[in-house]
């Protein structure tokens, strides 16, 4: 790995983040969160892009200061081109272009989903990076997919959600329970005090390795409506058990397809990535399969699970070594395939 110093910029959704990487060692990884979306129960694109405009300069400055480098030491700038919210992406893309021009350094576009997967190659993400080929369950608020990773930039989606993403299901069910946004971490916390076998919900029956989460959301909604008619305090009285049961159902849906893929493709190298990979029950399920099925498991550090610029910088570093640069005509894109 080269000793080049790269600035990574991430602005795909509602977190503005900047990181500095040298080789595959992260020197700084700074993020500004946007609390403004809480009252709306979800990310409001217009508000997100405005907040990125306010946050991006202080976040980049702080990342450079924390890394203890001079601005002119930067060898290249990597940025998230997509997928994500177009307004948010435009802020990061425009800023990256302007800074690259002013510093006269190369510009490197990064696919946000690739970055979640390749975060595993940051030197402190895991004790050891995964060996190729490996399976990566990439699961977040906007995406749920099983990716067969044959090499750094040779990836194939072998299964994906046909409707909601798993993180989206957590948030929508959280709304039914009247929990704050984002609901995923709250459900995870409350589930620790509940009985995961208290209630059962419908699970989808899909062929191949694809997922569906709209059914469980509807199942929970109808169940709650029926129970609240009988007892208006049903949610409050059973909240921990409800959270534990919902979490168990979602994790089982995720793991069943991942286990099927690992078995049929005869792959023991299995990783998770994305915001939902911070979920304690999913991490425990991976650990169980390490013991039960002999998987070599790769679970990234918490700070590399959510949207962060360290993963963007990691991909930019790999592309820098290959001389894969982009020119100033590049544009942000809401959809960006692996």
Automatic annotation (TrEMBL):
It comes from the Bacteria. GO terms for biological process: tRNA threonylcarbamoyladenosine modification. Fe cation binds at residues 112, 116, 307. SUPFAM superfamilies: Actin-like ATPase domain. Its EC number is 2.3.1.234. Signal peptide: none annotated. Residues 26-313 form the Gcp-like domain. InterPro entries: ATPase_NBD, Gcp-like_dom, KAE1/TsaD, Peptidase_M22_CS, TsaD. It is an enzyme of class 2 (transferase). The keyword Protease does not apply. It is found in: Cytoplasm. Substrate binds at residues 138-142, 171, 184, 188, 279. HAMAP family: TsaD. Required for the formation of a threonylcarbamoyl group on adenosine at position 37 (t(6)A37) in tRNAs that read codons beginning with adenine. Is involved in the transfer of the threonylcarbamoyl moiety of threonylcarbamoyl-AMP (TC-AMP) to the N6 group of A37, together with TsaE and TsaB. TsaD likely plays a direct catalytic role in this reaction. PANTHER family: TRNA N6-ADENOSINE THREONYLCARBAMOYLTRANSFERASE (PTHR11735), TRNA N6-ADENOSINE THREONYLCARBAMOYLTRANSFERASE, MITOCHONDRIAL (PTHR11735:SF6). NCBIfam families: gcp_kae1, T6A_TsaD_YgjD. Belongs to the KAE1 / TsaD family. This is tRNA N6-adenosine threonylcarbamoyltransferase. It comes from Chryseobacterium daecheongense.
């Amino acid at each position: 790995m080269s000793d080049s110093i790269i600035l990574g910029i991430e602005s795909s959704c509602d977190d503005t983040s900047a990181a500095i990487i040298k080789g595959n060692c992260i020197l700084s990884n700074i993020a500004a969160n946007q609390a403004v979306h809480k009252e709306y129960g979800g990310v409001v694109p217009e508000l997100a892009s405005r907040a990125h405009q306010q946050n991006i300069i202080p976040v980049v400055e702080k990342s450079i200061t924390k890394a203890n480098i001079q601005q002119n030491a930067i060898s290249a700038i990597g940025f998230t081109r997509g997928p994500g919210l177009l307004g948010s992406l435009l802020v990061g893309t425009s800023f990256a272009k302007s800074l690259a021009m002013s510093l006269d350094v190369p510009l490197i576009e990064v696919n946000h989903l690739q970055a979640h997967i390749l975060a595993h190659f940051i030197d402190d993400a895991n004790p050891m990076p995964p060996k190729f080929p490996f399976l990566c369950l990439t699961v977040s608020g906007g995406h749920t997919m099983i990716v067969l990773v044959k090499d750094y930039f040779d990836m194939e989606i072998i299964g994906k959600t046909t409707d909601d993403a798993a993180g989206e299901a957590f948030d929508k069910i959280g709304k039914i329970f009247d929990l704050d946004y984002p609901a995923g971490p709250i459900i995870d916390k409350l589930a620790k005090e509940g009985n995961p076998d208290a209630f059962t919900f419908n699970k989808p029956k899909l062929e191949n390795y694809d997922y569906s989460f709209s059914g469980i959301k509807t199942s929970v909604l109808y169940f709650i409506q029926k129970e609240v008619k009988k007892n208006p305090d049903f949610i409050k009285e059973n909240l921990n058990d409800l959270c534990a049961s919902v979490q168990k159902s979602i994790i089982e849906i995720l793991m069943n397809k991942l286990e099927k893929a690992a078995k049929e493709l005869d792959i023991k190298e299995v990783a998770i990535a994305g915001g939902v990979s911070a979920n304690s029950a999913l991490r425990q399920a991976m650990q169980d399969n390490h013991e039960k099925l002999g998987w070599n498991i790769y679970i990234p550090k918490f700070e590399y699970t959510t949207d962060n610029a360290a993963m963007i910088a990691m991909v930019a570093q790999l592309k820098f070594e290959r001389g894969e640069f982009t020119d100033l005509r590049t544009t942000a894109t809401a959809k960006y395939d692996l």
